[in-house]
């Protein structure tokens, strides 16, 4: 049975009458990447027009943009579905992402921009919280942490390439295996990586990122092929 888009987005702030396309895209993107809308969920245009108080035009444009980002697929006779990655796609994306994010971590550790480092420290502050992690919330924390590293790296082309490779979508797809032990291990790895960047140790930072993503890839593939 298809997931009700209205129910999945119920917890979000109610949009103003006639929500903009950008608002619809942002809300649906967040819902996909935090598993409010699970892989394979159907996005029904009529549900979305009611939820966002718009005509079909803005909804169709929002879905077109999400498809261009690789977050949804248009399937004949079924319409728009939240993209579900296969094992081969996950493996290939992680191969590229490991190389790119290891380089980003190295560049971030080498950064001598004091203001950028200050913004980085502020952006990753949630990783030091002692509060127990909830999978849905942790996906957002994880996305913000990786993006902070890409930003501190200071290479806009690298960041753009990395963001197109859908690590957040992969992690959302395997979110149902984010047990407390898995989450705790990921937090420890994030803190070790942040420490290497703070210590301006590019080799340690690159190695920490590689180990972190290799473990994440193994978890994602074990879940998808298990």
Major β-sheet annotation: 3 strands, antiparallel
CATH superfamily of the largest domain: GntR ligand-binding domain-like
**What is the share of helical residues?**
55-70%
The end-to-end distance, rounded to whole angstroms, is: 23 Å
- The total of helices stands at 11
Structural class: mainly alpha
Residue windows where pLDDT falls under 50 for at least 5 positions:
none
Number of domains: 2
Number of strands: 3
C-alpha Rg (nearest Å): 18 Å
Mean pLDDT: 87
Order of helices and strands: HHEHHEEHHHHHHH
Percent of residues in β-strands: under 5%
Q: What sort of overall outline do the alpha carbons produce when their principal axes are compared?
A: globular
CATH class categorisation of the largest domain? Mainly Alpha
Strand order in space, largest sheet: 1-3-2
The appropriate CATH architecture of the largest domain is: Up-down Bundle
Question: Short summary of the structure?
Answer:
This protein is mainly alpha-helical and 226 residues long. The chain has helices spanning 5-8, 21-33, 45-52, 56-68, 87-110, 114-123, 135-153, 156-163, 167-173, 180-198, 202-225, and strands at residues 42-43, 72-75, 79-82. The model has no long low-confidence stretch (mean pLDDT 87).
Task: Walk me through this protein's architecture.
By secondary structure, the protein is mainly alpha-helical. The chain folds into 2 domains: 5-82, Winged helix-like DNA-binding domain superfamily/Winged helix DNA-binding domain (Arc Repressor Mutant, subunit A, Orthogonal Bundle); 87-225, GntR ligand-binding domain-like (Four Helix Bundle (Hemerythrin (Met), subunit A), Up-down Bundle). It contains 11 helices and 3 strands; from the N terminus they run ααβααββααααααα. It has helices at residues 5-8, 21-33, 45-52, 56-68, 87-110, 114-123, 135-153, 156-163, 167-173, 180-198, 202-225; strands spanning 42-43, 72-75, 79-82. It has a 3-stranded antiparallel β-sheet. Strand 2 (72-75) and strand 3 form a beta hairpin. Helix 5 packs parallel to helix 10 and helix 10 runs antiparallel to helix 11 (202-225). The model has no long low-confidence stretch (mean pLDDT 87).
């Amino acid at each position: 049975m298809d997931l009700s888009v209205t129910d999945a987005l119920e917890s979000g702030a109610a949009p103003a009458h006639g929500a903009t396309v950008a608002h619809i895209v942002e809300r649906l993107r967040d819902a996909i990447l935090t598993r409010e809308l699970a892989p394979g969920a159907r996005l029904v245009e009529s549900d979305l027009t009611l939820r966002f108080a718009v005509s079909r035009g803005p909804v169709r444009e929002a879905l077109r943009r999400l498809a261009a980002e690789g977050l949804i697929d248009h399937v004949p006779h079924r319409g728009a579905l939240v993209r579900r990655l296969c094992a081969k796609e996950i493996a290939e994306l992680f191969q590229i992402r490991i190389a790119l994010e290891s380089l980003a971590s190295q560049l971030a550790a080498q950064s001598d921009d004091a203001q950028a480092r200050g913004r980085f420290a502020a952006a990753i502050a949630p990783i030091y919280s002692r509060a127990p992690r909830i999978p849905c919330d942790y996906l957002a924390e994880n996305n913000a942490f990786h993006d902070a590293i890409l930003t501190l790296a200071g290479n806009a082309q690298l960041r753009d390439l990395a963001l197109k490779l859908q690590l957040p979508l992969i992690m959302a797809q395997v979110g149902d295996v984010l047990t407390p032990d898995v989450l705790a291990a990921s937090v420890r790895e994030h803190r070790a990586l942040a420490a290497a960047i703070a210590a301006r140790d590019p080799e340690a930072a690159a190695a920490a990122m590689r180990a972190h993503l290799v473990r994440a890839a193994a978890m994602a593939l074990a879940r998808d092929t298990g």
